């Protein structure tokens, strides 16, 4: 869908009512009665939907910062038998406070690709955790051994995080060995 660029002009001298006048790209004008109404500088719609987005330079800087400076670590990454819970240490050395609702995915490496476990039947107890910039914290994620088998092989746990206006993910990997 074509974007429409709108510009707002307050006509204080020639407009005695103090109303906003909108000038659209197609040269049609309309007087708005509500002085407090705020219009978007650029509205580019795709199938009738739009959302607020940060300016690209700020968005990329923030994302790069958390991507490079948030670390997930396991004390042990090799087990003879899968543990009941996976203890993950999160180090946040970024310039942003991050949070998670302990949302995660578990995958097994099978034939050159990661196959995600079907966790649709599992209800995760969402426990909000916030890790301030410069801090560390621990997550204890249940592996649902009663629902999934963990034969010898490689596994990945992807944890979903948020900061300010964006979501990102980090992963840890572990192996079940003989």
Question: Short description, anyone?
Answer:
By secondary structure, this protein is mainly β. The protein is 8% helix and 44% strand.
Notes on the protein architecture:
By secondary structure, this protein is mainly beta. It has one helix at 56-69, and strands spanning 4-10, 20-24, 29-32, 42-43, 70-74, 78-79, 85-92, 98-100, 104-110, 113-116, 129-131, 136-142, 153-163, 166-176. The strands form four sheets. Strands 6-14-13-9-10 form a five-stranded mixed beta sheet. The N and C termini lie far apart (57 Å).
Largest sheet: 5 strands, mixed
Radius of gyration: 25 Å
Structural class: mainly beta
Catalogue the unreliable spans.
Answer: 1-50
Average pLDDT: 76
Q: What's the number of helices? A: 1
Helix/strand order, N-terminal first: EEEEHEEEEEEEEEE
In angstroms, what separates the terminal alpha carbons?
A: 57 Å
Fraction of residues in H or I helices: under 10%
Q: How many beta strands in the DSSP annotation? A: 14
Major sheet: arrangement of strands: 6-14-13-9-10
Shape assignment: globular
How much of the residues is beta strand, in percent?
Answer: 35-45%
């Amino acid at each position: 869908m074509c974007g429409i660029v709108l510009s707002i002009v307050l006509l204080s001298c020639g407009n005695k009512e103090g109303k906003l006048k909108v000038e659209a790209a197609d040269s049609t004008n309309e007087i708005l009665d509500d002085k407090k109404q705020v219009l978007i500088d650029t509205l580019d719609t795709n199938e009738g939907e739009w959302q607020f987005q940060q300016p690209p330079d700020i968005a990329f800087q923030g994302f790069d910062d958390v991507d490079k400076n948030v670390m997930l670590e396991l004390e042990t990454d090799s087990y003879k038998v899968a543990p009941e819970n996976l203890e993950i240490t999160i180090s946040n050395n970024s310039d942003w406070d991050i949070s998670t609702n302990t949302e995660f995915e578990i995958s097994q490496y099978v034939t050159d690709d990661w196959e995600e476990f079907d966790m649709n039947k599992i209800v995760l107890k969402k426990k909000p955790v916030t890790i301030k910039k410069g801090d560390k914290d621990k997550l204890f994620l249940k592996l649902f051994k009663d629902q999934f088998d963990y034969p010898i092989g490689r596994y990945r746990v992807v944890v979903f995080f948020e900061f300010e206006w964006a979501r990102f993910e980090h992963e840890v990997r572990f192996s079940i060995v003989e």
